[in-house]
Structure formats: structure tokens, C-alpha cells
Structure prediction request, 249 residues.
Amino acid sequence: MIKIANEQLRDDVLAELDCDPVVNARTIGVAVDDGVVTLTGNVANFAQKWAAEEATRRVKGVRAIAEELHVDLPTGDRRSDTDLAHAVALALSWNALLPQSIQSVVRDGYVTLTGEADWHFQRQEAADTIRRIAGVRGVNNTIALSKWAVGNDVSDQIHRIFERDAQIDADRVHIAAHGGTVTLTGNVRSWFERNEANRAAWSIKGIVAGDNQLTVGGRARRLVPGPRLRIEAEAGGPLARRLLPPAFG
Prediction:
């Protein structure tokens, strides 16, 4: 990927934010240093905060994001924790993709998700559901994944998925697996490819932890298998400030 000058990349990010109907780009500041984009300012809800991050991730040349956006809820959207807790519980119960084992705790507008799910996509789906509720300031996703027996060919299974996927260059990604833990290393061409590799790796039932060390941009290198690492995935911490790329998931 061709390195893009700081000023050009900043203009591209601002243009992408302005094109996203969910985001109010006028309240967001953008600074760029060698492909690292810092987002500052205020947004009206947590959904806008997430959308701004996603829009930035779509821009060619972005290597990482330092997200320092503050959720400043309008007076009409502020809710008591009791009211918000009822809304969160109802939203989770109405989502057909989610198990009933997922629970939530609300404090000062921040929602912590707990419980257990069989699949990683369910953990993500729960967080996505909560992000869109009016009054939510942030989501801390601590949902654990059920432990299932996995075979010894997890790396091969994931590699075959990569080879079938038109969006992933399987030769650029190395997979190290140990039990239910997977580590991805290598260099990919875009955030989209990185996210697609992430999604594909989590599609194997029994994967409970991982570490996505894929970098974005630069020349592909011949990948040599390294030591197998066991790194527990962060289920998702407070989102007040995050330096991306995040851990696997």
C-alpha cells in the first residue's frame, strides 16, 4: 500500500466522516501522524462514536486509530440507570440470535455485558444491539465463550477458509493455533481484509481466545511459523479511549 501524506489522509478521513449519515463530522476533530489517526471531540450518542470509528477504518492508508471521542448525550436522551437497564434487557431478549444466558449491568449509562455464549458472533451481536440504544454512553463486553473440544487441525481449517475467501490473500497471513486459542500474524492490504480474516478465524466453533497481530499496509513478507502463543482475548474493555488495531475480536 502506498504511504499517504498526513494532510491527504486527514482530508480523506474528514471526507469519509462527512459522507456517513450517522456521523456529525462537524463535532469531530481529526489528527494524523504517519498513518495513525486520532479522533477527538463530542458525539451525541454511542452509536455515532462507533460509526465514526468504523468510517475512519474504511479509509485507505489508515494504520491505526486513537479514539478519544466523548459521548455528550442531549438532555432528551438521558435516562436513569433503571430505565436504561430495562431497555437493555428488553433489546437482548428480543434478539433471536442471542442466548438467554447473556446479562447486563448498567452504571452511569455504561453497560457491562456478562454471561456466556457459544459463538463469538453472538458476543459481537450483543454489543451491537446495545450500542444503538438511546442513553448508552459505552459498552464493556465481558461475555465469555463456551469451551468446546477442538481438533488438531484448527490452523488448516482456518487456512482453507482464507483460501476460499475472495477478500483474503491467504499467503499473507500466518495462523498459529493451540487448543481454542488462535494467533494471526502477517501483513494485509486493508482494514477490510484484516477484519475479514478476523471474522473467518472466529467462525470455527471452539475458538475462545486469540490475538490478531495483522498489520495493515506495506509489502507482504514470506511468513515463517513462529512459536505458538497463548494469549487470552480481551472480551472488550471500556471504550473511552482505544488504540487500534485491537486484540483479536
Q: What stands out?
A: The two ends are 24 Å apart (CA to CA). Helices lie at 6-19, 46-57, 81-94, 120-131, 154-164, 191-201. The domain at 77-145 is CATH 3.30.1340.30 (Histidine-containing Protein; Chain: A;). The first helix runs from residue 6 to 19.
